[in-house]
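Write out this protein's structure.
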Amino acid sequence: MPHTTLPEFHDRMLSLALARVSEAAAMASAHLIGHGDEKAADQAAVNAMREQLNMLDIRGVVVIGEGERDEAPMLYIGEEVGSGTGPEVDIALDPLEGTALTAKDMPNALTVVAMGARGSLLHAPDVYMDKLAIGPGFPRDVVTLAMEPAERVRVLAGAKGCEPGDITVCILDRPRHEDLIAEVRSTGAAIRLITDGDVAGIMHCAEAHLTGIDMYMGKGGAPEGVLAASALKCMGGQMYGQLLFRNDDEIARARKAGIEDLDRIYTLDEMVRRNVVFAATGVTDGNLLPGVRREPHQFTTETILMRSKTGSVRRIRYTNPV
């Protein structure tokens, strides 16, 4: 039987197609901005994203998605997408990062998708992850998860040549973060609290000159952590993540995903091992992207499209007649 070589992952060829995937999901969910129905908005984005992914000539597997297979019709972990021809790829996605933000017409809702060659992405189970991220331009390991939160602020301020009071930290507004918030504020640092959307929160660190956010800290979903790491792989910056387990069921899910060292602290390059393409489209207005503009007979979206191989960052404005 002749040896068959599978097609290689050509990130440049697939990058524009990935932008179409996130654009379609954003436009589909835009109909439900401010309507108070999180599930409907999420489902609209899921349906549009799945339809676009299945048009691509890839052998795709969703490694970061919305739960396990029995939670379909969401895009679940392990779902195969694409035409079944072309390169084998890992896909990480959040069809609507910020379902509550969309339902309430609040800032920073995004559609997000990343793609890399098979084996690129950490298969993170749907558990919590303790996350720490900063933007580019700092020495390696200048701050780490091993440091106390207050120390991270002081060390980063020293690296920036400023006072701790000049640092702004982004943290999810959750009861579990009360002690973290108090400790960070004890240094004099400011905190940008966000209600949802920690992928966007981590991306903000990479453009501190635009967003005013220097560092991200806190516990959130592990799948979102891998998505955020995919973005920083393209934009530059450092990130660390440690999986957190609340019960034996979550440990079993981690082992099923191939994770043996339950205490491991992952670096960015361990969460995203090879080059990736990343696309995000604004659904509601935010610091990084404007939301979908609904005008008579047309939708206008803006997408950030990035390739880690080249470090290129494109912003694509797309007007679609409806």
